[in-house]
Write a structure and sequence with these properties.
Blueprint (H helix, E strand, L loop, with lengths): L27 E5 L27 H13 L4 E5 L9 H9 L6 E6 L8 H7 L3 E5 L5 H8 L4 H13 L6 E5 L9 H10 L3 E5 L22 H12 L3 E6 L2 E5 L6 E5 L12 E4 L4 E3 L7 E3 H5 L5 H17 L16 H4 L2
Parallel strand pairs: 1-2, 1-10, 2-3, 3-4, 4-5, 5-6, 6-9
Antiparallel strand pairs: 7-8, 8-9, 10-11, 11-12
Helix pairs in contact: 1-2, 1-9, 2-3
The structure holds S-adenosylmethionine (SAM) and iron/sulfur cluster (SF4).
């Protein structure tokens, strides 16, 4: 992986200028607040996963400075992810701190939902606006198999608590795999008939435990969103286009209360409209899930420079990292060491 701190940083940029060499503006920062997780989804983490030592993670103060600097550069939306963000100690305080940063208009979080019931109200009060909940099956036994002992009932309780706390519109992330949960496409879509939420089909990517999968079908059998689309049209008739949401193409079944999103990173890359930068669990800035090129923000944050000096150097680092973002990612291939939980899914 290229360490950008070894290269000269780009010339200083004014706060309002935050476009890469292809003219893409960057308004969205995703942060992995911990690489740890209480589940072991088969495609994401090995059962014997090892996690970063405590001191490797950025502190709340350090995260706040990165987000302040990102906001100076035009970032308006922040999403906390992981690993499982609700495992981070003091997550409520962190949410409150980030929500109060000038310029940040949207603060969201992606969670496996297992601990959400106990956190939803507190997080909403602290300033969190939305949650995405990952739930790859509607079947309790299968959930246990996919996650290695998770309890689906806890996730449903989390979803109910989030809706109750006003964390809406709620989105459900579903990664489909051949022979595992592919048969549930229609059942997931049918949820949108009766509930005002967005079910999002996310194509499997060659990261974490899925790194060896190939389009031809690896251990977990990649399912293309084109095939999902065809099944849904066969089952429900026409799908009506709805406004796009970030990287998702969104549709709805006529008369449905909710919507269906397709995130087709592998079969139909959306790189030209990708507005994201990332901060990994060990404090590296990165522009793309599937392409390396990182800047060690943690090393910068832990120098003896004054706060304002760090903030300015971070502006330059954001610009440099953004400029390393390829026009389009290079697709399925081996990405040694690339882990979804470190980069933040
Ligand atoms: N633990 C939280 C959760 O599961 O929502 C947040 C982190 S998780 C890495 C974020 C999202 O990434 C989840 O929706 C998960 O299904 C997805 N994900 C993990 N590994 C993936 C892979 N190899 N390909 C596609 N999506 C993946
Ligand atoms: Fe944990 Fe989320 Fe990865 Fe599942 S997908 S193992 S819940 S980080």
């Amino acid at each position: 992986m290229t360490m950008l701190q070894e290269a000269p940083l780009a010339a200083a940029v004014g706060p309002a200028v935050f476009k890469d060499r292809f003219g893409r503006p960057f308004t969205y920062l995703r942060i992995s607040v911990t690489d740890a997780c209480n589940l072991r989804c088969v495609y994401c983490m090995p059962e014997n996963a090892e996690f970063l030592p405590g001191g490797a993670h950025l502190t709340d103060d350090e995260l706040a400075l990165v987000v302040e600097s990102a906001a100076d550069c035009g970032v308006r939306k922040v999403r906390l992810s992981g690993g499982e963000p609700l495992l981070r100690r003091g997550i409520g305080g962190l949410v409150e701190r980030l929500a109060g940063i000038r310029g940040i208009r949207e603060l969201a979080l992606t969670t496996n939902g297992t601990r959400l019931a106990g956190f939803a109200r507190r997080l909403a009060k602290a300033g969190l606006q939305r949650v995405n909940v990952s739930m790859d099956t509607l079947d309790e036994d299968k959930f246990r198999r996919i996650t290695h002992n998770g309890t689906l009932e806890h996730v449903w309780a989390g979803i109910a608590a989030a809706e109750e706390a006003g964390l809406r519109p709620l989105k459900i992330n579903v990664v489909l795999m051949k022979g595992l949960n592919e048969d549930e496409v229609e059942a997931f879509a049918a949820l949108t008939l009766v509930r005002n939420l967005q079910v999002r089909f996310i194509e499997l990517m060659p990261l974490g435990e899925a790194k060896d999968c190939t389009l031809a079908g690896g251990s977990f059998g990649y399912v293309s969103n084109e095939s999902v689309w065809q099944r849904l049209v066969a089952r429900f008739g026409t799908l009506r286009p709805a406004p796009e949401s970030g990287t998702a193409k969104v549709y709805c079944v006529p008369g449905a209360r909710g919507t269906i999103g397709f995130i087709s990173a592998m079969s139909a890359p959306f790189c030209e409209r990708c507005d994201r930068l990332r901060l990994t669990a060990d404090g590296k800035l990165r522009a793309c899930l599937l392409e390396g090129g990182e800047f060690d923000a943690r090393a910068l944050l832990r120098t003896g420079l004054p706060r304002e000096g760090k903030r300015e150097l971070l502006h330059q680092a954001f610009k440099s990292v953004a400029d390393r973002k390829p026009e389009v990612h290079a697709g399925w291939r081996d990405l040694p060491g690339a882990s979804m939980v470190r980069i933040g899914g």
